[in-house]
Every structure is written in C-alpha cells, then in structure tokens.
Amino acid sequence: MLDAHREGDARIERHVTYLADQGLNVYRVHFNHKSDSAKPGVFTQSGVKGIRINLFMLQGKLRTLYFLGYCLRKAILNDCLKALDLLGFDPGQPSVIHVHDPQLLPLAGMLIKRSLSDAKVVYDRHEVYEEWIQYFGVSMPVLFEDLAKKFISAVVVVSERQIDTVQRLFPNSHIVAVPNYPLPAYYDDEVVNEKINLTDSGAHINAVYVGSLNNQADRDVDLLLKIADAAIRSYENVTFTIGGSSLDPESRARIDDLSQKHNGRFRFLGYVPREKTIELTEKAHIGFLLVRPDARYWVKGSPNKTYEYLMCGTVPIIRADVDHADAFKPFSLVFDRFDTDEAIIKAVLDLLGSPGSLKEYMRAAKDLSPDYTWESVACRYIELYSMLHSGVVHVPSARGVPLNADSCET
C-alpha cells in the first residue's frame, strides 16, 4: 500500500484495518511531506507495520514541488524497495499494489517494470481530480494519472455517481465504488445516546467542524464563521469548535477575533488528530460541511463527514453535492449552491432555537446510520483483488447496482 496522505487519514486507516482483519499481509509505505510531527521509519497501525519516508527538505510550495519531482525519479523507487525489504515483503507472492495518491502511480509503474511484473495496480481515487486545476491551468493529479494509466488494473472511487465518468477516463480499468462510510467500532454508542437523551431545553449545545479550512479552494470558511458568530450571539448555551489546516491569513485573523470576542465559547484547535475528531463529533449536536457556491470544485461526492455525523447522532448541516442527501434531508439542513448565506444562517438559528426538533433530528440521524457502514462495502476490496488475480469478474456494486443490493454483511 502506497500513500502520501496526511497522517491519520480516515479512509486509509479503515482500509488498512479491514485488510489486516481479513488476514491479508499488508506492507505500507507512507511518503510523508505533510505531517511535520510524524516520525520517520517503522510505525504500526492496526497491527500492520509500515515504513514512513519523510520528505521535509523545503517549506511550503517548494516542498510540494520537490515532492512532485521526487515522485518521477528513480530515487523514490530505490527508497520504496528498501522499505519493502525492511518490512519482509516477498516479491514472489501474488501481490496488489494499492495506491492512495495519484503522485505515486508512476512509482507503481516502476515497481511493475522492475520486479513485480505479475502484480496488479489498484488506484484508490479519493477526489474528482479532473476538477483540480492547479499550476498553469493543469491538474497535476491528472497528469500523474496519465503517466501511469497503462499500469492501472482497477480504480476505486468513493461514489457510485463517479463510476461512469471515471470509466471514460480509465477505459481499460475495472471501476468499483467503495464509499466513505464510517467503521462503527470506532464510535461509542453510549456517549452518543447519552448526548441525544440529554438534549432538551437549556442543554449545552456543541457545534463542530474539523476538516479542510482552505477558503481559497472549496471550503466556505467565511460562511462557517458567520454562522458561529450568529449562533453564539443568539444563544448562551452554544459553543463552536473548529479544527483543521490550510487557513489563509484573513480567515486566521477572523478566527482569532472570534476567539477573543466570545471568551471560550469559540475554540480553534488547529490540526486535530483522528481520535480527537471522533471524540468531538460524538459530543456535537450539529456538524458542518460547507462548500463555497462559486467553487470550481463543486462535485458529486461521498465525504467522510456526512456519514460520520450520522453515526454520531450529529445533525448534518451541508451545502455541497453529497450522495444520499434525499435519505437524510428530512432530519438535516441540506442546501444547494443557490441558497443564500442569510437563508442558511437563519435555518441554523431556527434549529438551535427548537430543542425538540434538534433532538428529533439527532435521533433520526443515529437511527439511519446503520445503512451507511464500512462493513457493508469494505468487502469490495477483497472481491476486487480476487477478481484481478483470478480473472473472474464478480465485484459487488461495481456498476449500476444499488449499494444495499450486494452488501458485504448479507
């Protein structure tokens, strides 16, 4: 397994845990250029040993550009082979090279040409990268995809609605959807149910958002902060907690201002580890996912946040194009890109002013959560691996089949 995500990525952690629980031998190489606090060398997650290679030669965009160049050089191949050797990897065994970042696809191609000619490359496509226009009007992820496309046997997408588009982009690859559903074992139902039961008139209300705070890309940090300010001013029992990274200077100044203005009822935590994010969400009554209406990256998706809110009995407040919105819209606040900020703020304040409705929505969210669990879709990874090595095509919900029609748990 090859990845270059920030330490603690939820999808990768679920993937590693599931494969280990199924008895597969997992060898993970983590190319880290984002988490300065992560230590290099051997690390363990869910009983799986991995090697972390840190790439911290430069800072900011220069570090990113260095990493992109590194991904195209033989140095990355040599580093990866050394890491696999330290992990005890046997190249003679049937193998899958599972890639979680497009920048590492050329490395997968190098491995195929160098010593793993019989291995199959599976690419886990976390985002709709064709909409990520970056340097000089080019999507760098798509550039890396194109460089290694011929080596990719299968692509895993996060949404059923992405299958047809991705099939056109990768016409010679098998396409499978594995949505970003949460793993129930990570969550404490006792904490969640107690929170819901105690939600009555006068109860303390926690609002939360932990995630990307890139206001210049797609996240609507401006609206999030407007809602926080209005809610705290309107209700003495409301506390807002925000965590994340990629803040622009203007947004950071506004956050610092709100922190001083609201005397502990507005908290900014910066980067939040995965375990702490779960804890905050379990105790939250409402949670946010707000995409800027003018963002180029307004795409169909299956964000972790949505289903985590359901699992935690936290009312989703969403302005984005998310899967299954019709299923949870009756007990959440779902907006499209044409709804005004004023209408969204008013709807949030109205919900906070109605403890009975808030409690009802929270309970309904929790009751729906069993329909969206990692266990119901994770087996598609194993089915995919088996199909690629056997040549027998049988992957649940690979194309056009409703998610629950081929649940892993049935």
Task: Tell me the domain tally.
Answer: 2
Tell me the structural class.
alpha/beta
Question: What is the radius of gyration?
Answer: 22 Å
Number of helices: 15
The span between the termini is 28 Å
Beta-strand proportion: 15-25%
Biggest sheet, strands in spatial order? 11-10-9-12-13-14
> Architecture of the largest domain in CATH?
3-Layer(aba) Sandwich
Helix % is: 25-40%
CATH class of the largest domain: Alpha Beta
Low-confidence spans: 393-405
Largest β-sheet summary? 6 strands, parallel
Instruction: Give the full name of the CATH homologous superfamily of the largest domain.
Output: Glycogen Phosphorylase B
CATH topology annotation of the largest domain: Rossmann fold
Outline the structure in words.
This protein is an alpha/beta fold. It folds into two domains: 2-181 and 375-406, Rossmann fold; 184-370, Rossmann fold. It is 38% helix and 16% strand. The chain contains 15 helices and 14 strands. It has helices at 10-21, 60-70, 74-86, 105-114, 140-148, 163-169, 189-197, 221-234, 249-261, 274-282, 304-311, 325-328, 341-352, 355-368, 379-390, and strands spanning 2-3, 28-32, 41-45, 48-54, 96-99, 120-125, 152-157, 174-177, 205-210, 238-243, 266-268, 286-290, 315-319, 333-335. Strands 11-10-9-12-13-14 form a six-stranded parallel sheet, with helices on both faces. A four-stranded mixed sheet has the order 1-2-4-3. The relative contact order is 0.11. Residues 393-405 have low confidence and may be disordered.
